[in-house]
Amino acid sequence: MSHCPDVPVHVSGGFLLLSAWFALESGLKPLALILFAVILHELGHFAVLRLCGAPVQGVRLGTLGAVMKSERSGLSYGAELLALLAGPMTNLLCAAALIVPARAIPELYAAAGTHLALGAFNLLPIRPLDGGQALELLVTWRFGPAAGEQTARLVGFVCAALLCVGLVWLMYESRGNLWLAPPATGLLVVCLRELQGVIRGAHPYRRPLFSEKSRGF
């Protein structure tokens, strides 16, 4: 476990193994680009949460990405939505900012593409990605927590299932590209979890982020 100012950072063994495997297969430069984009992504979340007065409890790096834990129950819906979207928007802004200098320095296109891919991926309406949490938050604000939970589960299931099928097809077409296996496995787990919730009307898979009292947007 390492620390950045007052925020513990937990790095799992799976993350280290996956990073080492990626570095051996693709080199250190692509790995550095991805890690730098992830760091900026989390700093986007961190900055907005701190500006809104929400305490950040820690960051965990695992095989399926980074997760920032924070206490957001005291935030308004608008502030929480801003905090959720700050990460992917940081990546998308970085991608846009790199396009112009990349015309003179072609090597920057790889960095721009990395930021674009990370930002777009995290906007997918699949929990625990930022897009999935934002969808749940918006529906909860308008129609209540039950509607938010069920909508997030149904949309997440459909999107995760479609993406999982697409990745499996790509693995077949690419004759067993093993780099598609981790995201395909993660999407399958999400798909099954959300399907179970839709069928059984299960309780949320995580502790609700919202306080019981009403909040303004």
Stretches where pLDDT falls below 50 for ≥5 residues? 205-217
Share of residues in strands: 5-15%
Q: Looking across the biggest beta sheet, what order are the strands in?
A: 1-2-3-4
Largest sheet: number of strands, sense, barrel closure: 4 strands, mixed
Give the fraction of residues assigned to helices.
55-70%
Q: Tell me, what's the shape? A: globular
User: What Rg do the Cα atoms give?
Assistant: 18 Å
Overall pLDDT metric: 83
Can you count the beta strands? 4
The number of helical elements comes to 7
Structural commentary:
The chain has 217 residues and is α+β, with helices and mostly antiparallel strands. It folds into 2 domains: 1-123, no CATH class; 125-217, no CATH class. Helix content is 65%, strand content 10%. It has 7 helices and 4 strands; from the N terminus they run ββααββααααα. It has helices spanning 13-26, 28-51, 77-102, 108-122, 130-143, 145-173, 181-200; strands at 2-4, 7-11, 56-62, 65-70. A 4-stranded mixed beta sheet has the order 1-2-3-4. A hairpin with a 2-residue loop joins strand 1 (2-4) and strand 2 (7-11). Helix 2 (28-51) crosses helix 4 (108-122) and helix 3 packs antiparallel against helix 5 (130-143). The radius of gyration is 18 Å and the shape is globular. The protein starts with a strand and ends in a 17-residue tail after the last helix. Residues 205-217 have low confidence and may be disordered.
